[in-house]
Protein 1
Amino acid sequence: MKTSIILFVASILVCLPKVENLLTASDTEGGGQKEDDAVTNVIYDTDMCTDVDDVGALAILHKLSDEGLANILAVVYNEVHKRGVAAIDAINTWYGRGDIPIGAYKKTLKDPDYSSYLAAVAKYENDTPSDLSKVPDALDVYVNTLKAQKDNSVTIVSVGFLNNLADLLRAEPELVERKVKKLVVMAGVSGDNFNTVRHDLVGEAQKVLEDWPTLVVISPIGEDIYTGVVLENVEDNPVRTAYYKWFNSSFQGRSSWDLLAVLYAVKGTELFDEQSEGNGSLRNGYTYKMSKEKRIFITGKFSKSYYEALLNTYLIQPPTNTKVENVVCDKPVDSSADCFFDLMGRRVSTPETGLYFVNGKKVLYR
Ligand SMILES: [Ca+2]
């Protein structure tokens, strides 16, 4: 298994001398360093516990950070599982960012959720104290993080319940208005049946959707976009273990709601369409009007297979700072020729429609 990954990397190295630019070439062309405002400053608010797409989404966020497109300011946890914070920390640590502040929801939730994978993920290296009273409060992390940022510069991505956000809005509405550029909420547009209602929190969801002072973008898509099966082919890591455990010790593809919310938060209209017509509603009867400035939702603009290939590409990539040493290629590759590699790292002589690595760039071959 490891050998195939090494050969994959080795093949790319031979094919592409400038491997460090593999995924960033288009971002740095002509201008060197990206402008500050081209980097999306993100606070990730997750219920990582029941479902595994929160893990995949955090992985995507790290890879977008590796590309220089995102900057993870903090992660806050809106569930109450006792291994949740340590698992988040373990994933951050795996990606070389173990110092990212993490805040936990310190109140109780009705009927807390079970997790099939958090305990296993929390065993990977992390420095979260076992005494959870020492973990910072999510509200404090939000406030301290926002205070340290420039005005109108923070994107919050909420892929779970809205309890932390409602607390923040009640405590510091002016800070939110000043610092937050955009809030992306993974939820259904109408009649959402999980993130806005679970744990009897629909009132908190309404508080946010009704009073949030900046643009709110609802991200309802991803149910039919399956990702993660490719993790079988990479070396052991916390993201791989989460998916493996979630599927009862097997590798399958899981719906990608949270991954797409993160992808939109960073890539925006490059990959998604924004819609501002119609209404949104919650299951308690609260209805709100979509409008360009305040409340919109997104739809996909590419095929299901495109999003699956793109997200899977991110999921299988190791952290940028992983050292690849003593790599050897199985055979010499002519670097002047096009080299197509599929997501498993296999060289492909007759590519069909899909995403490949070709001459140093991710290419959608049609
Ligand atoms: Ca979630």
Protein 2
Amino acid sequence: MICYPEDVNEAEALALYDYWLLSDETSTGFLYTVKQLDQRYKPEGARPINSLTQKASFLPRIPVFFCQSCKVKLPVKSRKRYNERIRGNSDLLCSNCYKSKEKEVSDNAKRILYEFKNRKFKAVDYLSGLDFLELMALLAISSGKEPGSLLSQSRNELIVTGAHSVDQKILSSLENKGALVVIDELPPEVQCACEDLYGDYDRVTYYSRDQKGVRSTRSDSFHKGVYLNPLVMESTTEVYSISSILYQKIQSSAVSFDEMSTIHQMIKNIQMDKLYKLVCFIEKEFRLKVDQSNVLSALLSHLAENYSPNNIFFTFFNRAQKAVMYIHKERIPEYISRHCFSKFVGDYIQYVEDNDYKLSKTRSLPPEIQSSPFEALFSQLYLNGHFDWNRLSAKEVVALSMESIPLREDVQALLIEGDGE
Ligand SMILES: [Zn+2]
């Protein structure tokens, strides 16, 4: 069925009729080309066929030209649209039905997300279960963030101290105690709901797919990742920010002996991690393979405890130059040369210590080795003025912080006893 505009003359009506004549014989599927139609009907007073088709429409009696929901007619105006409709194997909806379907899909998706979030995020009073280091770590990673905020896309990317194994242990513990919610994988129905709300509707071709709907931006979407769980506190109904509560709690907690030695270990791990990164830097810079041996790890442990990363970096650089020269000159084979760096550094440190010398020269760390959030927070709380751990050995960081970390009475007693001996 062709719907003709009111103002057509006879030639134009015939032109439109011929325009929609189908044929199995031609490659286009239509009996006449546009050019043929214009050549024939223009001399008889018809306007160009392309402008006529804009005012007319074509409605074959087949299902794809009717809304599958309300059966309203969905005619087409051009051969291109006709072909698309015939070839498309999708269900078609009129724009009204599309809108209500879209609303239904979006309401359903919102409900699924709402229920999922309610299931995952259950506000609990997790603060009382956290020890000193966990409080510190939580403040370091969540500073200024609202409850329910995404802290990181994955547990592996979330940096607390920068030392990977230490971080993973703390994060697991914070998760187990309810402070963090880790969503490793979105359940399929939640993923679908996110796509329905924020993704494109590629999977379903609707009638009005050409009308670009306004979609929420991706940033509203729900991702897998690590989230800060909401907190409830029994003692008060007032709303504080989690950061300020953590801050107060840390400042008022006294540290036990075990915690103090864990803090020491953590500081050392942070410093040692920097030294490992420096070794990687040296490997790239000097194209020097360094074997990750027990010798190296024992050496770095000793260095982290007793020297500042800035001093060590200078020594690394200097010794690497010497090692490379030696390897080239003596044509040392690879299976030996990869132990050279550790040996050169180790021997030099031994020489320095045997003679009671000091490492006085420093080299600034490459910019890619940044302070971790934990380090920054710890310095801010306990190391007035010594913000930069790169200038301190682990031992010095611990000694300086002991002056301002509130210690539990038993630790103080122990220290006084120790002094008296
Ligand atoms: Zn409809």
Protein 3
Amino acid sequence: MSQTAGAPPAAPLYRRKRHPYGSRMDRPIRSLSALVAAFLVFCLGLASAAPAAGPSDPDPAPLRIVLTPDEPQTGDAVLVEVECRSGTSCPPDVRLSWSEQEIPLFPHPLRGPSFRAGLLAVPLSARPGEALLEASWTLSERRRGFRFPFRIRPGSFAEEALRVDPRHVRPSAKDLQRIRREREELERIYAAGAPGPLWEGGGFSVPVPGEVSGAFGTRRLFNGELVSRHNGVDFRAASGDPVAVAGSGVVRLGKELFYSGNAVIVDHGAGVFTSYSHLSRIEVTPGQRVARNEILGRVGATGRATGPHLHWGVKLNGVSVNPIVFLEATARLAGK
Ligand SMILES: [Zn+2]
């Protein structure tokens, strides 16, 4: 399903209209400290929003921001929809950030010129509680600002014990050098993505049809000694099964890595990358443009794997996020 950018303004835009002015004053306030904290957040919001509101504009919030999911948990991908409420289009230099994370904004595919969209990553290591999104833009040669408070919930993640080749738990000095080189190569790739979205039109879908056999964020104990977080999601699949590209983009890596085995990384633009690990065969090459559902390789058990499966990863702005939540959040951009 698709909609044109000039959709009628009367059409309902959001399922939830909980924060129409960027504040959370509609929340039940349960204690005095919550009341004081809420008052401070409210004052901050007003103070930062005030410069952009002229005498003819009674609305104190120049931006309307909606998050999906609206109360993300650690490890979630979050769709940020921005409506610029003064003027007919968003200022070209409107920027959005949270903590150290710059969130690339792009024209909203389903809305008019006064809308922008972007994707925010809440790291597994994020501190649960109140957080502030910061927006800024230039108006009459002055930098304006606006803050949007949101709440991060703690995620709950299982633990599991796995047995793998000891080489992947206690790497040799030579392997450690290789691991460091590969980490640097991946960092360079993730830092140099296309600025705008390349996935337009089709959105994203799962790369294989199988059920999830390993959830995102699980604390894993390898061979009883090495603890690590599962930074993707595992799908049950047989060796040789085709693996499809989750969304249109450009292949940035297709090679064997120490931990990931045969791996493919696809750049979808606007801070979004997907990765496909433990493949038995790679059928694309770096630089190649790929369309959603195109076959990029075959399921295997290469690298640190206990058997054939597909490990699928999603990176947003350099941070690993839950791929299943990413699919749900981006479905809204494809009108699903
Ligand atoms: Zn995995």
